[in-house]
Amino acid sequence: QSVLTQPPSVSAAPGQKVTISCSGSSSNIGNNYVSWYQQLPGTAPKLLIYDNNKRPSGIPDRFSGSKSGTSATLGITGLQTGDEADYYCGTWDSSLSAEVFGGGTKLTVL
Amino acid sequence: EVQLVQSGAEVKKPGESLKISCKGSGYSFTSYWIGWVRQMPGKGLEWMGIIYPGDSDTRYSPSFQGQVTISADKSISTAYLQWSSLKASDTAMYYCARHHLGYSSGWYNYNDYWGQGTLVTVSS
To answer: Are B109 and A92 in contact (CB under 8 A)?
Structure first.
């Protein structure tokens, strides 16, 4: 059972927009910054978003992040078949003094 | 170019010991945390712990405290993850990552560069 809760799967058509939610508590998301990762099949995770809404160099602006209270959201616009992957949220948990991840969300681009 | 290169796949028997490595290049190895993340077959990411090679400050997830040892040799820019007695349940892919951790109106932490992963298989 993960500390952060994500939907197991989401799907949308090419060109459409999708959002992935990540729910936590005051000991993690509520008071700390959130990051998001993309894991393509058979590869290492890749940082998409850090500090709630910042994109590393090279990440297209189709990817966005936001946070409100104890929940965070990853948005992806202009969906492409190459976006099919598992997506994970992560943050620091102040009670555990540890990084925690969501269980992951599998994105299918129909 | 920042790179983290991990050691190759391992096949071990229960009860054996193991040490896997992660070599950093293209940045100041002693100035960033290095973290380890476990991914069991078909499952999600689990944070194991981090080490700051500059002073060997090490933090463990409560779930992995006492189960593994994280270390680093800054002279060769390499971090390690080791087990003294493997179990079948240690079978997983293990990733190292350059880890950022700090406080600014809240804790910020993220992993910006990842190794390619080391597959550890423990089977009798």
So the answer is: yes
Please enumerate residues of A whose Cβ is less than 8 A from a Cβ of B.
2, 31-33, 35, 37, 39, 44-47, 50-51, 56, 86, 88, 90-92, 94, 96-104
What is the distance in angstroms between the Cα of B116 and the nearest Cα belonging to chain A?
6
Which residue in B2, B90, B53 sits closest to A58, CA to CA?
Answer: B2
Contact between chains at A100 and B47 (C-beta distance less than 8 A) = yes
Digit-coded pLDDT (tens) for B57-85: 999 999 999 999 999 999 999 999 999 99
Tell me the shortest Cα–Cα distance from A14 to chain B, in angstroms.
26
Q: How far is CA B60 from CA A38, A68, B47, B57, in A?
A: 24, 29, 9, 10
Q: Which of B100, B50, B85 is nearest to B70 (CA)?
A: B50
- What's the pLDDT at A1? 82
CA distances from A101 to A65, A66, B26, B76, B93 (A): 16, 16, 27, 30, 16
Q: Answer whether B41 touches A (CB < 8 Å).
A: no
Query: Which residue among A51, A97, A102 sits closest to B108, beta carbon to beta carbon?
Result: A51
A102: which strand partners? A4
**Tokens at B15, concatenated:** 């009860």
